[in-house]
Design a protein that fits this description.
The chain has 300 residues and is of the alpha/beta class. It folds into two domains: 2-163 and 205-228, Rossmann fold; 168-204 and 230-268 and 282-299, Alpha-Beta Complex (UDP-galactose 4-epimerase, domain 1), CATH 3.90.25.10. Helices cover 38% and strands 20% of the residues. The protein starts with a strand and ends with a helix.
Length: 300
């Protein structure tokens, strides 16, 4: 199998590329002029996704396109809505035009955290989608266009809605997810600002997420949308207390008001992907936290 990973040089993409390259050919596309991968099965190509008018040359020789590119993050800022649509939705429509014409399958990495909006219960793939930030709205717009191109042109597609991924690995000099940031500040004795702190989130270790994505890539059934998470929720405050107990240290926390773009509770129901693919997460939050603490102590 030959995969094209749009945004494959990012956090999730780099892990996915290395995993897929064990048994497949992988083409990674990103903005950087150069990106090094250890595997000889990974080819890197530079491309400006926003400005690309014709994706034919990039997709003509691949079997599956994995679309992970996003230029935005959840925010209360409304001043860039036009720009965010121009940079994310319109290029994706151009991609879907070319993918439909060339009969290529598209797998879109959406959002399990922002798509659903407020919900007291676990979110199923069939749950109402009422995002409260532009990030979630744009993800949902792209999902709708995928369904539309399937209806009009028979485009084969899958949508993956991941929860909140984290890892002990430093990527581009940045920690990935709030959990390693908590541990870093705790070990270094530095203060940390937290919005709210009582919000409940579903945190998934990056290796589990990549395994889940791979399971969907191999899936040949009828379902089109899959949640990937742990099915369990935890607050930031609880994670801080857990990390403090494990390290015997105290984190200096400055609590800030919760942002308007943040839902109070988000936990994913993952029964569908379990039933359809057999995938299940293996790394508990406590085990993932242990990995992060071990690495942070080793590098301080």
């Amino acid at each position: 199998m030959r995969y094209l990973l749009l945004g494959g040089s990012g956090f999730i993409g780099s892990y996915l590329a290395n995993s897929l390259a064990r048994e497949n050919q992988v083409v990674v596309v990103g903005r950087q002029p150069k990106c090094d991968f250890e595997s000889k099965n990974i080819e890197y190509r530079q491309m400006d996704f926003v400005k690309c008018d014709d994706f034919t040359d990039y997709i003509k020789d691949v079997d599956i396109i994995v679309h992970m590119i996003s230029t935005i993050i959840p925010s209360e800022d409304t001043s860039k809505f036009n720009l965010e649509i121009n940079e994310n939705v319109l290029p994706t429509i151009r991609l879907l035009e070319d993918a439909s014409r060339l009969k290529k399958k598209v797998v879109f990495i959406s959002s399990g955290g922002a798509i659903y909006g407020e919900n007291d219960n676990k979110n199923k793939e069939s749950s109402p989608t009422n995002p409260i930030c532009n990030y979630g709205i744009i993800k949902l717009m792209i999902e709708k266009y995928l369904a539309l191109y399937h209806e009009y042109y028979g485009l084969e597609y899958r949508i993956i809605r991941p929860s909140n991924p984290y890892s002990e690995t430093v990527y581009h000099n940045k920690k990935q997810g709030i959990i390693p940031v908590i541990v870093e500040n705790l070990i270094k004795g530095e203060p940390m600002s937290v919005y709210g702190g009582e919000q409940i989130r579903d945190y998934i270790y990056i290796d589990d997420l990549v395994d889940g994505i791979s399971a969907v890539l191999e899936y040949a059934g009828e379902q089109r949308i899959f949640n990937i998470g742990t099915g369990e929720g935890c607050t930031v405050e609880a994670i801080i207390k857990m990390a403090e107990k494990k390290t015997g240290r105290k984190l200096k926390v400055k609590l800030l008001p919760m942002r308007k773009c943040d839902v109070v509770k988000n936990i994913l129901d993952i029964s569908l992907i379990k039933e359809e693919t057999g995938w299940t997460p293996k790394i508990s939050l406590e085990s993932g936290l242990d990995k992060i603490i071990e690495r942070e102590i080793a590098y301080v």
